[in-house]
Amino acid sequence: MRTPLSRIVGTLLLAGFLLFPLATSAQPIAPCTSSPCYTGSFQDGIDAAQNNLPFDGSLSITDVMLRIISIVLDVILLIAVFAIIIAGVYLIVSGGDEGQKEKAKKIIIYVVAGIIVILFSRAIVVFVNSIFG
Predict the structure, then answer these.
(1) I need a surface site. Which of 34, 59, 113, 114 has the fewest CB within 10 A?
(2) pTM
(3) Which residues touch 108 (CB under 8 Å, ≥6 apart)?
């Protein structure tokens, strides 16, 4: 059963996660001073991005695979950070319950071990690419 304190903490955390991006994006937008300044439609932006990427066959399969692996590892690391945050919330709102504390500690240990594995896998990918690429 959830206590009122855990509901308050959960609500505040949820509100913080939802409102933090709004607070950080509240900066005034600087006028575009770069030399192509794209102020057109969404499709204009997609066309400009396609013109800046080498879709003419100069992008090798190795480069594509490295980009995909890098993106996947970045997403997994981001999920791991959120898992540590959630485990920290479990630890904070455990209210002295040893079972909840142990659950939170196990989550943190497993996530840190996962982060180490992810970082080693990234190092292996970079090492293999430097040898064969």
Answers:
(1) 34
(2) 0.54
(3) 84, 87, 88, 91
Q: Which helix (H) or strand (E) holds 116?
A: helix 98-132
CA–CA separation, 12 vs 48, rounded Å? 41
**Residue 97 per-residue DSSP state:** -
Measure the CA–CA gap between 77 and 115, rounded to whole angstroms: 7
Question: Within its chain, how far is the Cα of 61 from the centroid?
Answer: 25
What burial class does residue 37 get, using C-beta atoms within 10 Å of its C-beta: 0-12 exposed, 13-18 middle, 19+ buried?
exposed
* 1-52 residue pLDDT tens: 567 667 777 776 666 666 655 555 545 555 666 666 555 666 666 666 666 6
**Residue 32 DSSP one-character state:** P
Q: Residue 130's pLDDT is what?
A: 85
Long-range contacts from 6-15, C-beta under 8 angstroms, 24+ separation = 6/93, 6/95, 9/89, 9/92, 9/93, 10/89, 10/93, 13/89
Q: What's the CA gap between 47 and 50, in Å, rounded?
A: 5
List the domain boundaries for the chain.
Answer: 57-132
